[in-house]
Amino acid sequence: MCVVGVDGCPVGWIAVGRRRIDDFPSARVFATFAELLEAYPDDATIAVDMPIGLPDFTRQGGRGPEALVRPLIGQRQSSVFSIPSRAAVYAEVDPFSTVETWYAAHRRASEVARRTSDPPRGVSIQAFAIFAKIREVDVLIRERPELRDRVHESHPEVAFMLLNGGQAMQTPKKIKGSVNPAGLNERKALLVRCGHASEFLDRAPPSGATGDDLVDAACMMLVADRIRRGEAVSFPDPPGLDGFGIPVAIHA
């Protein structure tokens, strides 16, 4: 019965989970995704806001799931990043010591992305910023095939839309990189209507995470429960497969 929702956060990963259906959720922060997996039962259903399954070559709009969900979330579609080829994601794996080396690595990854896409397309700054976390999950799922049945990609804005009766959120969660209180409150109110307690959502997030990270992970927990009960929607349905046999789909 254990369900876990996961979002990336500044120091690693934030997980919101419950072990039984009547449990009050708990929020925890982990430095690595491997540590997170070890903290929960082997049969836990996990939904994570992170791309899973990487293409060898991309077409217009990025991977298939991204192209499918963008039209569904209206003005929130900029939150769905186009993820390039596996070669581009793995083009730069060394740590960056300065801002200059970070931007240089971004340019090199963009060049690889352009060579493995049609029409040729580089990498957005936002997508490049999560490449390390994408690789972290990807390595684990390639090395441990049993995870493919219980660790599922999701996306908060797609999930909020479905939980809201098919209507996208009216206000942005962030404006120019800063949390928008009106947008955060709109999402909290929806999560309360869907079963979360307001006292849980209004508490201070664990050290290393922010308030919007907590809200997104709480949303992902509801998706994990929908997956466990066989009620989640998959984009596409059925999921595609990447070159390693990893399912490629956004679940919500």
UniProtKB/TrEMBL annotation:
Superkingdom field: Bacteria
Cross-referenced InterPro entries: DUF429 (IPR007362)
Protein name, UniProt field: DUF429 domain-containing protein
Organism: Mesorhizobium marinum
Taxon lineage: Bacteria, Pseudomonadati, Pseudomonadota, Alphaproteobacteria, Hyphomicrobiales
